[in-house]
Amino acid sequence: MVNPDASHTACASLIKFEDPDYNRLLASVPKKKSRQITLRNSKAALFTVSVDRQEYNADSDISFLCDASTAITSADVPQRKLEILRLNENGVAVPIMENPAMNLGEVVNIQLSKVKPDLEPKLKAGDTLLIVVTIEDGVQFVLSVPIVAEPVIAPPTSAYALLRRAWTISGTDEVVECRAFAWSPAPERFELTCPSDLLGDLVRRRAVFRWTDTMRPAEQDSQYSYTIQKITPNGSTYIPDLDEFLPVST
Questions:
Q1: Can you spell out the DSSP letters for 81-117?
Q2: What is the spatial distance between Cα 71 and Cα 85, in angstroms, rounded to a whole number?
Q3: SS3 for 10?
Q4: pLDDT tens, position by position, for the chain (250 residues)?
Q5: Does the global pTM surpass 0.70?
Q6: Containing H/E element for 20?
């Protein structure tokens, strides 16, 4: 929570929060392939290429990782390339992205909505993406993932209320009020909890919600703290204690 310097104009507090229950629902099973490869310099390693899901929407973000099991660096593999091809319903493959600068051990985030804005026809449900990784001459990994219509990230089903506790400097006139409320609000962003999950069996994520609260000049002489109240679809409500309100930081 951040509060800009108080002045004679309105100022805003920025509140960021997460819902652990919703975060657990965001986990997905990655799609990956591994192969033992001996490089030209005679170094050998188990290479793994992975994406964070088994399927995607046409406007999804893809998290991609190529890594080796031993101390292999990008310098040991001078020839390496990541390509994405679109395979339409007629079986025609069209390149839509190429990244010859792919680095081993680094997560590549790909926004499908921005990969090729002039692509015609646009990506749609029923298409298939071929994610092709070339390591050395003739050594390729191919991951095939479908484009689906059903959202791969469902919105939260709960409601959230931003509660503000206010009191004067003397400690009197304490008030708790709801400053914002929404059912199934959209998070500001999604993040991988741990990038190395791409090499495991489950990819964990967190959703970060970002709300603001504006204070009028007349309110800026008071002290404030905030918390989040949650209401689930079945009506159960979490009622926070006063000591769970977090003060505004400056």
A1: EEEEEEE-TTS-EEEEEEETT--TT--EEEEHHHH-T
A2: 30
A3: coil
A4: 545 454 557 788 899 999 999 999 999 999 999 999 888 888 888 999 999 999 999 999 999 999 988 877 777 887 788 999 998 778 888 899 988 668 888 999 999 988 888 888 889 999 999 999 998 767 899 999 999 999 999 999 999 999 999 887 666 668 889 999 999 999 999 999 999 999 999 999 999 999 999 887 666 667 889 999 999 999 888 888 878 888 876 5
A5: yes
A6: helix 20-25
